[in-house]
Design goal:
Layout (H helix, E strand, L loop, with lengths): L14 H15 L6 E2 L11 H15 L14 H12 L10 E4 L2 H7 L9 E6 L3 H9 L3 E6 L18 E5 L11 H14 L2 E5 L25 E6 H5 L7 E4 L8 H13 L5 H8 L4 H28 L3 E3 L5 E5 L6 H12 L1 E2 L1 E2 L10 E5 L4 H15 L1
Parallel strand pairs: 1-11, 3-4, 3-5, 5-6, 6-7
Antiparallel strand pairs: 2-8, 7-8, 9-10, 10-13, 12-13
The structure holds D-malate.
The site of D-malate has 6 residues, from loops.
Amino acid sequence: MQINQNFDNIAQSYLFSTVAKKQREFQAAHPEADVIKLSIGDVTRPLVPAVIDALHAAVEDQARQETFHGYGDEQGYSFLHEALAGYYRTHGVSLDTDEIFISDGAKSDLGNILDLFSADNTVLVPDPVYPVYVDTNVMAGRKVIFADANAGNGFLPLPDAGTACDIIYICSPNNPTGAAYDRAGLQAWVEYANAQHAVILYDAAYECFIEDTGLPRSIYEIEGAKTCAVEFCSFSKMAGFTGTRCGWTIVPKALADGKLNKMWLRRQTTKFNGVPYIVQKGAAACFTEAGMQQIRETLGYYKQNAKVLSETLDSLGIWYTGGKNSPYLWLKCPNSMDSWTFFDYLLEHAHVVGTPGAGFGKNGDGFFRLTAFGDQQRTVEAAERLKKLLG
Ligand code: MLT
């Protein structure tokens, strides 16, 4: 046996595991400390009633001979494809149902999609970036190059026509920076990708936080995107499915003359047995009138947290991106501290855990990410502690 030596080229532990370990160690050393976690972007509100009702009804379906479901199609049930196609139509995007593939979440598919591309491809990712994009490619031995995201470009780099690449990752609204591309920015990336015959892997997991009507919610709102982009999205942040698991991937038939759509179907039918019927029924309930209304209320709860944190940073005079159109706030560490020093400082003196920007890439050092997915009272308490410590 020969092991995959590429694993030697990634950090030993995944960023969020390292952060959780540090929190556990601190808590063990200080059992009396009331630690508030604003680190991993995990939701805290329960699933909405419309989803719960649909899940219960689907459980009952599985109890009866005449409504029982065994294996479903690997790419998902048509009731969910149709609900999603309807959701995209509300953004002015028209999709065929066989361009929509149901998955157990965006993270898995962002890694799995790489089965379709040669190991020789060069991958362009913004720095800082959600670590999954880099780590999955390094594991496969692909060459990764970076587009500098920094305070100067508002953490929204634009393509450089002189840089050649094959695979491009874009996440908007962005994880970790919370910055979101406008139409002109995404148009520039689409034109660049089409000119290079490159593919954009577009992570839209946070589109449900977009409030500004001028900002695109799907890359397919941009002309030319169907010939260059695969889009990944998820019910995790939209509807609290982090522990329930459901997402979707769009592989347009206009991409590579339909080849990638066929290959993805082949890949999924070979390596995946589909998302449980019960979960897909719960996911479809998100798109009912009641479901959408209830989801909007939950998103409003998190947006209120984002507002509390934004106002706190404003009052402290701390520079940040995000907090609007995004559940993340990406702030400049006070007093020129590096990210991990600020992480320790905040944990030790305010008992608040965030995510060090350095964990997202070299340009992330000196920055820090807070999430608005926490409990509302605890977020207000964390904001008070930040004011006391940094004011
Ligand atoms: C994060 O904190 O960045 C998210 O939880 C990542 C994810 O959704 O996997």
